[in-house]
């Protein structure tokens, strides 16, 4: 009886261990896939850039100097003339006005009367937009048509202050934002419900990912609804039962999960020394040795004086030179076996005491030797 009790207890422990292991492996499998919503976007549903030129007023002496910014003076005079004030023959010397460029993104399906955020940036020599208010500024698209009108107080995240002996500056005070600062005046017509074919554009073009996405959609919808046209496009034919309810169909499709695939790639930014390597990077058998000859020369001159109460003698400077040579004799030749993983590659280079800068040169040399089985991209 005791034997069977122990056996049951042992079986219970095995079941518990398997349950814990399964619960630990389940999140890993879930993280391997991503939603179609995060991998692709629907062509046609996009933002549009808007730009405009305007004036910010109400600055506390931190605006453009009209002598150095003639466009600000001309804009100020034109604005005052439209308001019935003639200043053509007057000498303007105000410094509380700044000429600015206003930019914003017209959201997809932005309706007339809704609002959007805008960014305001100085054009002249204004030092700060703190406390300023943007006057009415039309925002135009690439076609030259006005799609929104902006106005409102500018909010900035930086400030600057200075005195005779010191100055303090934090952030950028010459650029700011106006939340909901523009009103949309014109809509961009786009009839999504009337479309018979919808194209999904992949954020990271890849043949395998595009085909997997088409297969997942076909399994969910049925038939051959989706087709991978190229590495960056999946064409989706709206079925007869889905016409008139394209939004509902896309809502369900974008929640489907696909395991994205990506090529083995090493990206190097030589300016900052940043290295990013994908998980599929492999290296063939290669031996690596890294070392530099460093010669350090230090000058420490000393002063030589005659003994106290000496009848003769001069005070002279005696040179003292210290030369040190570092040939990295302690560094050893490192061997990376064929098919090593990214983790093994990084561990091997770190064991040689290789820094990011030297690692960039080593990776480029490995790629030149043909041992790096990955694409090398240098920014």
TrEMBL record:
Describe the task this protein carries out. Answer: Assembles around the rod to form the L-ring and probably protects the motor/basal body from shearing forces during rotation.
**Annotated family:** Belongs to the FlgI family.
Name the source organism: Candidatus Phaeomarinibacter ectocarpi
Q: Which InterPro entries match?
A: Flag_FlgI (IPR001782)
Primary localisation category:
other
Q: Name one GO molecular function term.
A: structural molecule activity
Q: Which gene encodes it?
A: flgI
Q: How does it assemble?
A: The basal body constitutes a major portion of the flagellar organelle and consists of four rings (L,P,S, and M) mounted on a central rod.
User: What is this protein called in UniProt?
Assistant: Flagellar P-ring protein
**Keywords, alphabetical:** Bacterial flagellum, Cell projection, Cilium, Flagellum, Periplasm, Signal
Q: Might you name a Gene Ontology BP term for this protein?
A: bacterial-type flagellum-dependent cell motility
Query: Signal peptide location in the record?
Result: 1-32
| NCBIfam families in the record | PRK05303.1 (NF003676)
List locations, semicolon-separated: Bacterial flagellum basal body
Alphabetical GO CC annotations of the entry are:
bacterial-type flagellum basal body, distal rod, P ring; outer membrane-bounded periplasmic space
Q: Does the keyword tRNA-binding apply?
A: no
The keyword Thylakoid belongs to this UniProt entry's keyword annotation: no
């Amino acid at each position: 009886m005791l034997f069977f009790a122990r056996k049951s207890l042992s079986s219970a422990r095995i079941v518990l261990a398997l349950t814990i292991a399964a619960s630990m492996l389940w999140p890993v499998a879930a993280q391997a896939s991503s939603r179609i919503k995060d991998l692709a976007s629907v062509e046609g549903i996009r933002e549009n850039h808007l730009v405009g030129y305007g004036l910010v007023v109400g600055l506390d002496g931190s605006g453009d100097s009209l002598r150095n910014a003639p466009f600000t003076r001309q804009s100020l005079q034109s604005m005052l003339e439209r308001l019935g004030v003639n200043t053509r023959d007057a000498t303007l010397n105000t410094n509380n006005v700044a000429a600015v460029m206003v930019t914003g993104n017209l959201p997809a399906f932005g309706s007339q009367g809704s609002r959007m955020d805008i960014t305001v940036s100085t054009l002249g020599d204004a030092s700060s937009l703190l406390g300023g208010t943007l006057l009415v500024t039309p925002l135009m698209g690439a076609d030259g048509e006005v799609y929104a009108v902006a106005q409102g107080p500018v909010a900035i995240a930086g400030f600057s202050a200075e005195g005779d002996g010191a100055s303090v500056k934090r952030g950028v005070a010459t650029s700011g934002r106006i939340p909901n600062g523009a009103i949309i005046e014109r809509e961009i017509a786009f009839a999504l419900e009337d479309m018979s074919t919808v194209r999904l554009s992949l954020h990271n073009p890849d043949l395998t990912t595009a085909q997997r996405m088409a297969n997942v959609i076909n399994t969910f919808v049925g038939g051959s609804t989706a087709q991978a046209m190229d590495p960056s496009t999946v064409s989706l034919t709206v079925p007869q039962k889905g016409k008139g309810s394209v939004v509902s169909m896309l809502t369900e499709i974008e929640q489907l999960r696909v395991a994205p695939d990506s090529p083995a790639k090493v990206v190097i930014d030589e300016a900052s020394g940043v290295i990013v390597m994908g998980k599929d990077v492999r290296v063939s058998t290669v031996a690596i040795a890294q070392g530099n000859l460093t010669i350090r020369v230090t000058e420490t001159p000393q002063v030589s004086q005659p003994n106290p109460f000496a009848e003769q003698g001069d005070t002279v400077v005696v040179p003292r030179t210290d030369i040190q040579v570092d040939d990295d004799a302690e560094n050893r030749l490192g061997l990376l076996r064929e098919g090593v993983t990214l983790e093994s590659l990084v561990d091997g280079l770190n064991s040689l005491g290789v820094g990011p800068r030297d690692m960039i040169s080593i990776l480029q040399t490995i790629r030149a030797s043909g041992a790096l089985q990955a694409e090398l991209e240098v920014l």
